């Protein structure tokens, strides 16, 4: 979505169009009047837009197309557009009506001029609505502007463009009714596959003067070009599959639990992440189709204005949405690491003190907004940071962080400025803000004290350690089994009887379950089924065991252990004993082997119990367990004894 190339692309374009001055020193950021605007438009703007020659005046050899900085193709032609207000949009006081004959108010849609004006004909002198231009509104420094207005699409060459701008200047295209001028164009860099959509804005307020601003959006609209992009396609398909799976899962959980499912903040967070992901997938499809349509239209009409502002805006919102979604996904990590008392200290503290913080926040913001209103009324006409109520709020947060220009308010009001600053710092910073910290610290102490008295829960490292050790012991048992079978095969006999094989395993103290698995291997290699392994069958079995042994060694090496090495944190049995109750690696291995053998036996017992239960149910359905009529408890017991004598022994004895 973003990269360092996008940042440098934006930086290069901003330095070229915003900071490049003309011969008289006027850059875009320095525009302060209508005269400055015309000087910039006919000088630095045209110089920056039209690159058709090398620095030695040799032609680029790329036809009429302009390649800014020799790398960035100017898409279509730039567009110049303005919005105006009517002459009767405001009322002049009666005392000044003889001297002031016209009045132009600040811009608003209901006061917008829509009639033709000027001495010439054409789109620059005729109003076009937002629907006709296919534009969108823009939020400027002073107010929000519509997507309509009077516009001029620049001609294809620099000379023709300079003549068109000269005609507009001579025809007084900008006058007292003008409130804003937009310069829109787009460039594309094929080296990094990025579009840069630029909008230069100059607002002409009712107070006079000019206020420049700009908007530069560097976006990737063509998604799939390089091999890396096609790898991203695979990731996106996988992402869609996961989203579909979780959609089904959330629907099923909502059907089962109903509205109670939303009682957990983690479940709400899951739904938010899924909804944002669905919106991202939908916009991704729309963006791909729309870009293909616009590119096809632009290739057919290269002298047309390339309106990528709409797509660039929504691509930026798409990136913002993905950023928020990724933020929530990171927050979900707390759900999976907060399973012991160490990890739950933060969440428990915030949950317990939430009510106290919310209650005290009401008092805090009453005082905070009171100071914001005070600062707005005291310094709003002289200090930029207090020029609006919203700016006052952010300025007061900056005062708390120490990022503040005290001299500005002191110069604006030498009496009330210091009073405002000192009282705000004392009451808000030293008193109220520290009350928040006191509430959190007190709650944290309580939570920590309660958790200290609780029993230690399983740590994440313990889970990893147990899984690691269990895997290691199973590999060791497999290695021992392979070694014992190899010992039996190395006895030197040309033929090995099945009975001798099982007796040898019994002498090596293998459990019944282990003997069952090993005798199954004997049967697998006994190809003729006569219960005897001849030399050929023994050779195949040795080769298989050799491969099995190599595989076990490889797994042990992957775990980072050797067969004779102790468990993590144990250097010797004596040192382990000194550590306070720990056992040595050899003792742990013996205990773990017995536990695994016990688990194996219990698995077999449970299997046999299930088989016996099934047989008992079958016998009961057949009526074998029904006692004679009128039989007492002794008669029922004798009947059960008789019935069980008919039933095959479930233990296989």
From TrEMBL:
Catalyzed chemical reaction(s): Ca(2+)(in) = Ca(2+)(out); Mg(2+)(in) = Mg(2+)(out); K(+)(in) = K(+)(out); Na(+)(in) = Na(+)(out)
PROSITE patterns hit by this protein: EF_HAND_2
GO biological process terms on file: detection of mechanical stimulus; protein tetramerization; sensory perception of sour taste
GO molecular function: calcium channel activity; calcium ion binding; calcium-activated potassium channel activity; muscle alpha-actinin binding; pH-gated monoatomic ion channel activity; sodium channel activity
Pfam family, one: Polycystin_dom
Transmembrane intervals: 230-248, 268-286, 357-379, 419-440
Primary location group: membrane
Domain of life: Eukaryota
GO (cellular component) term, any one: calcium channel complex
Membrane topology designation: Multi-pass membrane protein
Binding site residues for Ca(2+): 526, 528, 537
Protein location: Cell projection, Cilium membrane; Cytoplasmic vesicle
Keyword Membrane in annotation: yes
Record's protein name: Polycystin-2-like protein 1
């Amino acid at each position: 979505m973003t990269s360092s190339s996008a940042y440098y692309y934006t930086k290069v374009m901003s330095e070229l169009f915003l900071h490049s001055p003309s011969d008289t020193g006027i850059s875009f950021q320095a525009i302060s009047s209508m005269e400055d605007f015309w000087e910039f438009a006919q000088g630095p703007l045209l110089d920056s837009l039209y690159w058709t020659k090398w620095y030695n005046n040799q032609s680029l050899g790329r036809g009429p197309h302009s390649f800014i900085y020799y790398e960035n193709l100017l898409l279509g032609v730039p567009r110049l557009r303005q919005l105006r207000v009517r002459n009767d949009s405001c009322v002049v006081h009666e005392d000044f009506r003889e001297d002031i004959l016209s009045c132009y108010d600040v811009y608003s849609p209901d006061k917008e001029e829509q009639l033709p004006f000027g001495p010439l004909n054409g789109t620059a002198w005729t109003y076009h609505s937002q629907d006709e231009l296919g534009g969108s509104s823009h939020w400027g420094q002073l107010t929000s502007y519509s997507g309509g207005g009077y516009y001029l699409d620049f001609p294809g060459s620099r000379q023709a463009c300079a003549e068109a701008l000269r005609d507009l200047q001579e025809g007084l295209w900008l006058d007292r009714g003008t409130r804003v001028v937009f310069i829109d164009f787009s460039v594309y860099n094929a080296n990094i596959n990025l579009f840069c959509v630029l909008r230069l804005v100059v607002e002409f307020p009712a107070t006079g003067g000019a206020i420049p601003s700009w908007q530069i959006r560097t976006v990737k609209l063509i998604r799939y070009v390089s091999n890396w992009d096609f790898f991203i396609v695979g990731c996106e398909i996988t992402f869609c599959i996961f989203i579909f799976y979780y959609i089904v899962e959330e629907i099923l959980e909502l059907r089962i639990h109903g509205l109670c499912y939303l009682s957990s903040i983690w479940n709400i967070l899951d739904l938010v992440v899924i909804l944002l992901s669905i919106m991202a997938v939908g916009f991704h499809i729309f963006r791909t189709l729309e870009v293909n349509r616009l590119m096809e239209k632009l290739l057919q009409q290269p002298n047309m204005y390339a309106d990528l502002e709409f797509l660039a805006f929504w691509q930026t919102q798409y990136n913002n949405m993905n950023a928020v979604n990724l933020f929530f996904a990171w927050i979900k990590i707390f759900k999976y690491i907060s399973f012991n008392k160490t990890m739950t200290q933060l969440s428990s503290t915030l949950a317990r003190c939430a009510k106290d913080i919310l209650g005290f926040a009401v008092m805090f913001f009453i005082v905070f907004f009171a100071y914001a209103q005070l600062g707005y009324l005291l310094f709003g006409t002289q200090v930029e940071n207090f020029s609006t109520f919203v700016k006052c709020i952010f300025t007061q947060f900056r005062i708390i962080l120490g990022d503040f220009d005290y001299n500005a308010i002191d110069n604006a009001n030498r009496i009330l400025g210091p009073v405002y600053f000192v009282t705000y710092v004392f009451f808000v910073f030293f008193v109220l803000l520290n009350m928040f910290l006191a509430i959190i610290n007190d709650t944290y102490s309580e939570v920590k004290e309660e958790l200290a008295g609780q029993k230690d829960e399983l740590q994440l490292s313990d889970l990893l350690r147990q899984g690691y050790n269990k895997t290691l012991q199973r590999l060791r048992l497999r290695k021992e089994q392979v070694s014992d079978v190899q010992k039996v095969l190395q006895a030197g006999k040309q033929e090995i009887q099945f009975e001798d094989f099982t007796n040898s395993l019994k002498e090596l103290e293998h459990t019944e379950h282990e003997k069952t698995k090993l005798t199954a291997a004997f049967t697998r290699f006994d190809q003729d089924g006569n219960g005897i392994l001849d030399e050929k069958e023994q050779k195949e079995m040795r080769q298989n065991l050799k491969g099995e042994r190599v595989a076990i060694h490889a797994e042990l090496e992957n775990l980072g252990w050797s067969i004779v090495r102790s468990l993590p944190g144990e250097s010797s049995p004596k040192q382990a004993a000194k550590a306070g109750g720990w056992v040595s690696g050899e003792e742990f291995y013996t205990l773990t082997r017995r536990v695994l053998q016990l688990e194996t036996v219990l698995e077999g017992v449970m299997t046999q119990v299930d088989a016996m239960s099934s047989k008992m149910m079958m016998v009961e359905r057949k009526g074998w367990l029904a006692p004679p009529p009128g039989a007492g408890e002794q008669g029922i017991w004798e009947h059960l004894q008789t019935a069980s004598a008919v039933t095959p022994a479930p233990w296989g004895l």
